Amino acid sequence: MAISKELIDGLLVTIQNLYLADDIPWMIGYSGGKDSTAAVQLVWMAIERLPVKDRKKTIHVMNTDTLVESPVVSKWVENSLEHMKKEADRGRLPFVPVRLIPDYDNTFWVNLIGRGYPYPRMKYRWCTDRLKIKPVNNFIKNKIAEHGEIILVLGTRKQESSRRNRTMSNLEKKRVRDLLSPNPTLANELVFSPMESWSDDDVWSFLMQYKNPWGYSNMDLMTMYRGATADNECPLQIDKSAPSCGKSRFGCWVCTMVEKDKSMEAMIANDSEKEWMAPLLEFRNEFGNEDGDRERRSFRRMKGTLQGNYGKLFHGPYIKEVREEWLEKLLRIQKDINENGPDEFHDLELIRLPELQAIRRIWVNEKHEFDDSLPRIYEKVMERPFTDPEWIHNDSFSEEEWEILKRTCQELYPDEELAFEMMYTLIDIENKASGVSQRKSILEDINSTITKTFYRDEEDATNFYSDMMVRKKENGGKYNEKFLDFQPIESEFDNDEDE
Fold it and tell me: For residue 181, what is the enclosing H or E element?
């Protein structure tokens, strides 16, 4: 399909007719990439041609900021949304840009550094739902509750992948109205994909032929894509052998779902002005490195339980020392970029203050690490006080008591790896249970702590778990068959893994 004036004019009329057909509000997903830019531009051009009196329905332009987006792309999107707002106000257009973020208690860093979740991978992809899907779904659900129904406009295309083609084709068969497909995950949400049959080259042809209506540069967008390809080229494809910048993928700079972040690597290699991002890439490669990752994590699951396959225990969250080391490294990278990076990134926050406050609460209140190390790490690196005005904590024990207890446990029980954790957890439980109401469950908490920490080391825990499975098998109980089948260990991650 070749992009022509007749084709675009016809599509704009189709969009206008769909917009005027009812009172259902519209939403457009906007990432700042080529497809979503083209989708917003098509709708913008269509609505702009309508009389002001017919522009009654609000059109929310939704951008999901995971808070770990590529800084270059994030800055691009931020500026683009500002242009949109100004131009929409000036032109009396119904577009309302909105930037959605995950809950600060559920961001990437809060889960990785705070809770110690293992870095995301194919069989343990905890990030997408928390960082992208939930913020959008919550916003959409609120609008559905308000209006009863919404229409979501997306720049999705069948040619993006064979999987996308199958999904869109299947939803086509279920259309309840012309051009509108149901969303299989959200009731009362209809999806409109105006570019569903376009190719990569069709998208670029449209963006190059039609000026961006909110005053941003589509040529600069192509330049950004070009810079994110290894060969620094971004031609329009005329055959399958030609490279295409449409294959570039922008996303989270922390993404470990791919072995290498080729887009960021290319940006750094192609543009000396982007070399300041190299520490980000190095840090991502460090925490996303599978070699030695088991040793960085506890041999117990997130809730302190034991589980395993083929004679080995599954490892769970990252240990305290690793989490603290990564936090310090992240803050140092941020400080260096603020001081030595490009002027436009002098206020870049790789990790936000509310995230740091959430991590502090997890470490102290949930993990019982009463030495409260986060403020010390922050002040050591950033050279300014850590701000947390709502912090309420019983300061009976601090870093000094922590170090005394640690040294005592090491001297008295040098072979007991979990003795210190057992002691500081029990002390913190008792310290926090000062009131009568707080002591209701203290016996259960003490028993739970001892149950999770009475193992000498991983070998002792493995033998304990193995003996337990053998007893269950011998007595006809339900047991972990895979654990007693001594073969090379398989992946310790599953989509339905108990966190």
Answer: strand 180-182
